[in-house]
């Protein structure tokens, strides 16, 4: 449901201060009641009679890297978004193979091992940040291709990683 400029939207709930320093504050809040899906918020603050505001959205993870790439498995690693290291969060991971239904998982870790894969198959993996209030970032993706088992001259050139 899209809101028009005339609609009065409910405020977010359960605003919490997660981290407070001399020159910054990290806040968390739950989605407004009755609204679902990705949302963008405007945060306004004031000090000594001056106000300022900014638009806020959930930042996706960064630095997707593949290691232990084999014929039937690989491990994907990533980093939390910059500035989000101390913010409680989970990660939503989806693994897509062309022509098949995507597989999905949620983890607290910054890595995931995929196993029992088919040799010579291309896999697209997406990772999104999910905050404890359910807010989710846009996904970041990478495409990985496993090598073909039938190749007697195994070489790293038969494996590739393509960042999207």
From TrEMBL:
Residues 147-158 have a biased composition (Low complexity). Coiled coil: none annotated. SUPFAM superfamilies: Fibronectin type III. Keywords: Repeat. The keyword Repeat applies. Residues 60-150 form the Fibronectin type-III domain. This is Fibronectin type-III domain-containing protein. It comes from Coregonus suidteri.
């Amino acid at each position: 449901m899209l809101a028009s400029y005339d609609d009065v939207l409910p405020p977010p709930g359960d605003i919490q201060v997660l981290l407070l320093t001399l020159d910054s504050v990290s806040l968390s809040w739950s989605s407004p009641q009755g609204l679902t899906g990705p949302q963008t918020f405007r945060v306004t603050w004031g000090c000594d009679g001056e106000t300022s505001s900014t638009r806020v959205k959930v930042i996706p993870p960064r630095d997707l890297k593949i290691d232990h790439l084999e014929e039937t498995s690989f491990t994907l690693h990533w980093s939390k978004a910059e500035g989000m290291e101390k913010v409680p969060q989970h990660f939503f991971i989806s693994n897509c193979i062309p022509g098949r239904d995507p597989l999905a998982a949620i983890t607290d870790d910054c890595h995931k091992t995929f196993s029992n894969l088919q040799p010579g198959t291309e896999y697209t993996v997406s990772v999104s940040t999910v905050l404890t209030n359910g807010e989710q970032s846009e996904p970041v993706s990478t495409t990985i291709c496993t090598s073909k088992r039938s190749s007697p001259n195994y070489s790293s050139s038969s494996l590739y990683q393509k960042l999207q």
